[in-house]
Specification:
Elements lengths: L1 H22 L4 E13 L17 E3 L14 E3 L3 E4 L2 E6 L4 E11 L4 E7 L7 E10 L9 E9 L2 E5 L11 E6 L5 E6 L1
Parallel strand pairs: 1-11
Antiparallel strand pairs: 1-6, 2-7, 3-4, 4-5, 5-6, 7-8, 8-9, 9-10, 11-12
């Protein structure tokens, strides 16, 4: 009787782990994105203001249930940089404004990951899509490794390592927000 009970329990646990693995819950990862994003308003002015918490861009894995930033969750450095969960800005002398750097979400059992962007109270309409490959083999100090092949911002290609499309690695990615909440993506190569 104990063996049967143990067998049933183990079967339930194995099934549960398999379902989590298939859905990607256990294999989620966050990878650093090296691109410099610059958010501009319709007039071409930098939208990021370190004194206005709503102007700080932040990413989330879902387009639902996003909670706004809280002042105590943000770390400011020298008044010109902030850090919050793989999101950071710093002042760039070349453009005389702020650049945003972020991490991108993915699952090691998928080939594409989506990261939702929130800025100025927007509801996550902006989406960064990353196409990648990942592997468990040959990784040192990590559970898995990933290679980013393409990155899109609202379906506009902004980065490519050359594997699937022509190589593209811009110096700056300008995200111009319009009054109608549409977005124009401009690349500086």
């Amino acid at each position: 009787m104990k063996k049967i009970s143990l067998l049933v329990l183990v079967s339930i646990l194995m099934t549960s782990c398999l379902k989590e693995s298939e859905s990607g819950k256990e294999s989620e990862f966050l990878v650093n994105c090296h691109l410099k994003f610059v958010f501009l308003n319709e007039k071409g002015e930098n939208m990021i203001d370190v004194d206005d918490i709503k102007s700080l861009p932040v990413t989330h894995q879902s387009d639902k249930n996003f909670q706004e930033l809280k002042k105590e969750e943000i770390r400011l450095f020298k008044g010109k940089e902030y850090y919050y969960r793989m999101n950071r800005i710093n002042y760039d002398e070349k453009i005389k404004g702020y650049c945003w750097y972020t991490g991108l979400f993915g699952f090691d059992n998928a080939k594409e990951g989506k990261t939702f962007v929130y800025i100025n109270g927007a509801d996550g309409d902006d989406v960064i899509t990353m196409k990648f490959t990942s592997s468990h083999e040959g990784c040192i100090g990590a559970y898995y490794c990933s290679d980013t092949h393409e990155i899109y911002y609202n379906n506009t290609l902004i980065y490519s390592d050359g594997k699937y499309s022509e190589k593209l690695d811009p110096k700056y990615v300008y995200i111009k927000k319009k009054k109608d909440n549409s977005t124009e993506v401009i690349l500086e190569k």
